[in-house]
Amino acid sequence: MKFFIDTADMNEIREANSRGWVDGVTTNPTLIAKSGRRLNDVILEICKEVKGPVSAEVVSLKADEMYAEGVALAKLHDNIVVKVPMCEEGMVAVKRFSKEGIKTNVTLIFSPLQALLAAKAGATMASPFVGRLDDISTEGMGLISQIRQIYDNYNFKTEVLVASVRHPIHVLESAMMGADIMTAPLKVFKQMVNHPLTDAGIQTFLKDWEKVPK
Ligand code: E4P
User: Fold this and answer.
1) Domain range for residue 50?
2) Residues forming beta bridges with residue 106, ordered by sequence position
3) Which of 3, 81, 119, 171 shows the greatest Cβ crowding within 10 Å of its Cβ?
4) What whole-number distance in Å separates Cα of residue 35 and Cα of residue 41?
5) Cα–Cα distance between 167 and 174 in angstroms, integer?
6) pLDDT score at 211
7) Which residue among 6, 7, 159 is best mutated to probe the pocket of ligand 1, counting the most ligand atoms within 8 A of its Cβ?
């Protein structure tokens, strides 16, 4: 299973990457805005730091404009994946990108049928947003097992990228369900590291070590 970090903050990316946790990066317009920097500058810096796919999102809502934006983004670096929102115009753009070998990540997926349509259009990755579903009292992870089953039934190559991950249980269930990728903020990676028995174990070993003759 691949782990992506969901941020445009270079300090967070460097920190996670130095620990070997980062197979790729996802960004979105909100995360780019938070960075306070220009899209191209951040994306290029991320591509220099991380050796893996980096999703950069288009903001046009018309297929031709999405296509033009995506081509410009893809030209920045070989690892760029053009992130396209799930909508009819988006699917036109995805089909075109796919024909030309430009990688895509269809974002804002909230139903299994949207994921099926994204795969049929030729998406490289599909991003179901589990946390935002949980937020409206709809069980987000159920969507992941539905998409996994549909893609396996028909042998779609589109990768299931679990997005809007809010806590370690989302990651655990994604792994159990066979999701290809999950993307999470740094906070979730840190929560995954910690276990109270590990902390207690380290303290005991250190204490006992003091008794060892030196
Ligand atoms: C994924 O690519 C998105 O950027 C992200 O996971 C959205 O997460 P949020 O619902 O926490 O904003």
Assistant:
1) 2-210
2) 84, 126
3) 81
4) 11
5) 11
6) 97
7) 6
| Residues annotated as catalytic (active site), given as ranges | 83
- Name residue 54's beta-bridge partners: 25, 80
For residues 28 and 53, is the Cβ–Cβ distance under 8 A? no
Distance 28 CA to ligand 1 centre (A): 7
The CATH number linked to 173 is 3.20.20.70
pLDDT in the model for residue 39: 97
Q: How far is CA 182 from the centre of its chain?
A: 5
Both tokens of 131, joined, read 């946390």
What does pTM read for this prediction? 0.96
**Spatial CB neighbours of 183, under 8 Å, sequence gap ≥ 6:** 3, 4, 5, 6, 24, 26, 127, 161, 162, 163, 165
The ligand 1 atom at the shortest distance from the C-alpha of residue 183 is 6
What's the domain count of the chain? 1
- Using the mean position of ligand 1's atoms as its centre, give its distance from the Cα of residue 26 in Å: 8
Q: What is the pLDDT of residues 89-105, one digit of tens each?
A: 999 999 999 999 999 99
How many Å apart are CA 113 and CA 156, to the nearest integer?
13
User: What's the confidence (pLDDT) of residue 96?
Assistant: 98
**pLDDT-above-90 percentage for the chain:** 100
Burial class (CB in 10 A: 0-12, 13-18, 19+), 48: exposed
Give the pLDDT band of residue 70 (cuts 50, 70, 90).
Answer: very high
